[in-house]
Amino acid sequence: MNRFQRFMYGRYGMDHLSRFLIGITLLLSIIGSLSKKSIIIYISYLFLFFVLFRMFSKNIQQRAKENRIFVQLFQRIINSFQKLKRTFFGTKTHKYYRCPGCRQTIRVPKGKGKICITCPKCRAEFIRRT
Ligand SMILES: [Zn+2]
After folding, report:
1. Ligand 1 centroid vs 9 CA: distance in angstroms?
2. What is the SS3 assignment for 47-83?
């Protein structure tokens, strides 16, 4: 093992959360130097410090737990964005409408022209172009 490998042995190393934090660090340091606001640069140092602390940490379980929470949260944010996008634009094959009666989201196939949609939940009928 070389010196770096020996140093990193038993330490946590890199994960998704750290990569994300490095991204924020870079973004903040760019914004900080462009806007010439040193406070933003100091905040980016804080993020960098946190990344280094996590990388060299020997409390692997705790760091893995943090990463797991981050990944779950990140996935949830991505999912809600996808859901939002789907609601507004639909997918390749389907469009999404909200029932005017009970606000239930209803999926209908695209390209069927004007159709009468019956809500599966409250049986309300409404006409939409698909
Ligand atoms: Zn309904």
Report:
1. 58
2. HHHHHHHHHCCCCHHHHHHHHHHHHHHHHHHHHHHHH
